[in-house]
Amino acid sequence: MNEEQNNKELAVFFWVQSQPTIAAFIHSLVPNFQDADDILQNVAIITVEKFNEFDRNRSFSAWSTGIAKNLILKYYANKGSKKPILGIEVIEKVAQVYDQDPQSIHDRIDSIEKALKKCIQRLKDKIKKIVQMHYMDELSPARIAQLLSLTTNNVSVTLHRVRLSLKSCVNQELSKVDS
Amino acid sequence: MTERYEQLISMFLQNTFAMTEQQRHELSVWITQDTKNTREFIEASLFHRCIHNVLLGSDIERKRILHGDANFPEMSDKLFDQRLWEMLSKEEETAPEIEIQRVAAEQELIRNVKHEKIEYKSKKAALLTIITAVAAVFLFFLFVKYIPSTVKVEVATLTCTVNAQWAESAAPMGAALRLVTNHEPLMLRKGYAELVFDNHAKVVLEAPVEFQVLSQDQIKLTYGRLYATVPAGAMGFIVSTPSSKIIDLGTEFGVQTDFNGTTELHVVKGKTSLVSGPNDHKINILLNAGSARKIVENASAPIDIPCNAYMFARQIEPKNHFVWRGQNINLADIVSGGNGFGTGQFDKGIDPVTGNITQSLPRNDVYEGPKGYITVASNPYIDGVFVPGINPGPVQIASSGVKTEALPGTTGLIWGYIFNGAWHEGVDVPRHRLQLNGASLEVAQSPAITMHSNLGITFDLSAIRRALPGMRVKSLTSTFGVSNTVEKRIESRDFSGLESLPGLEKLAARRHASVEFWVFLDGKKVLQQTQTSASQAGIMDIPIDDNVRFLTLAVTEADDTFMYDWAVFAHPQLVLDSADNAPIIH
Hints:
The structure holds 2 protein chains of 2 kinds.
Chain A: H1 3-29, H2 33-49, H3 60-78, H4 88-100, H5 109-121, H6 125-136, H7 141-148, H8 152-178
Helix pairs in contact in A: 1-2, 1-3, 1-4, 2-3, 3-4, 5-8, 6-8, 7-8
Chain B: H1 3-15, H2 21-33, H3 35-55, H4 59-67, H5 82-94, H6 105-115, H7 127-146, E1 154-166, E2 177-180, E3 186-197, E4 202-215, E5 218-229, E6 238-241, E7 244-257, E8 263-276, E9 283-288, E10 291-295, E11 303-306, E12 315-317, E13 322-324, E14 329-330, H8 331-335, E15 349-350, E16 357-358, E17 366-368, E18 374-375, E19 382-386, E20 395-396, E21 403-404, E22 413-415, E23 418-420, E24 423-424, E25 432-433, E26 435-436, E27 439-440, E28 448-450, E29 455-460, H9 461-467, E30 471-482, H10 485-491, H11 504-510, E31 514-521, E32 524-532, E33 538-543, E34 550-557, E35 567-578
Parallel strand pairs in B: 5-6
Antiparallel strand pairs in B: 1-2, 1-3, 3-4, 4-5, 5-7, 6-7, 7-8, 8-9, 8-10, 10-11, 12-13, 14-35, 15-16, 15-23, 17-22, 18-19, 19-29, 20-21, 23-28, 24-25, 26-27, 28-35, 29-34, 30-33, 30-35, 31-32, 31-34
């Protein structure tokens, strides 16, 4: 096995270790599901391709988070907005929080998703429909409004309250488990 | 966090690019001014993602979440404020507006075009699965890049074929032939072929098909159909097509590719990773069992299609030219003389007196059944029939002499036949379809075995296994009950003159017919359940060990006479599985 091959395999190994943190970092800053997954995939490819440039004395996670930061900035720049949606200072601040405590933020994801299943099931059918259209079919509030003959504001308000209510429900479910 | 910032976060999550400059600035300042705020922002974003992930689980899981499931544990009202939802619903109509930038309609439409790419929806699964998938993709890239393309190595064996006819240009292909990497494309013009890779991944090919074995864990499908069964030890097995690469993550899946390069992937068990799209924009999605995608060459995104689990030949047996596509054995078909796969006929069945398969079912009266075990010679899959409880003492329920003491004494009075269909006709009852759970058991949609009380039938599972080498009978499933049509007939029935029948007073008082259903495996009782014409149908799902030979179904009268015991087994199936999947530990 030559050195380059060794490097590639090592890169894959490191990537598998860090991937959940990098994914969570990207998901924190890019709410569009499809776009976030594309960015994650590109980070993966770049980390393997540029692994030779990685300083082994540094944290791999921090290094790949840096790559993710650049791609996120590029993503927002490519969207053509005159001013950045989220400035570099926000991205840096989020990265700083991940750097300080890379596990704590996303290590509850499994239990949150488990609780969410119960909570979503309790939604009224009409509300479920809107949730499904937004979170599964990835339709914007305006498009949902058009399809359901509602106003965009109705849909936005509903989605806003759904998120808060689900959060409240999940917290109660998790506290039940904890106790 | 104040309501204001919750609203700003909602705007960011729902439609980031519709935020005004002022709103972006306000949110950015809030996020950066305090680490606590940053964490709240991160948690909100991840929660948003979690909702998406939950809804993009398996199809079954999604249905359960979105459409409910009676088996799902109910949450206490105290744990979930139902009033909140009612309030939400009411207020929706009159809710104050959240600040949303009024964007031009044209811009909104352009964005919507982008957002409606629902074909990506199975891409996002649990994080653990994503880790595995990403690792598999990279290992695939490494493999392709570093294994020399000219080396020929033996990596797989052609284990068997059925009616196979290979293209003239191809080398003679016989069973046990070893296949090497980088061979010329092989074309199977007719029939079926099974390859087993040295890592135990199994591929069944169905003609017309052209393929190449590329490496120890990769096959290229130029066109045609294949079905891959990949054990855990061979995880990472790859099927390449002109428009995609399918990377196994411990699974069974079928792939079909046509001459235009259009590929369909149907995941039957486990998970796969699907890589597709043009070179400059490859996408990778995870597919769970029950999912399917269509990939058009050079198109950017796969299309969600219904999974067809029965489309692919999964198992072939050269000895009897058997090709299995995942279907189960229909016991109603066997009862009418068939092989369990549709060769029997409706409205045929077994005469309990002679054990013969009858060509017609003329008898509609009640009569006394035979006193001994009657073997059925005309269908090897049926061992025999009997009338439980007609004699005192243990009841013989198999030709081997197996007896059970579980079955109670009965009057030994029976009606009609044991037959493939769901109807009843009596001396004073016109012929009509039986019903379970209020639904009529129609012939095509609901295969069924009608079996009046005081009848039993024993199937010979060994004979079934002999006919299906490489397969195992995994379980018995059926819905069963007493026809709801009894209710109407019995409602105003005058029972005078029949007082001497033991138990009649109970039938007359209840105005429901009761029946006991029984299932035995090698004489051991595995199900005993009382059903009435008013109750919901019972459901059975009984696992069957590989060494069980006799499966017995029986129906006996309960404490209310044999009258109106219009019993039926609907969708009675033996669930099949590949013998490769037999449990290692019982």
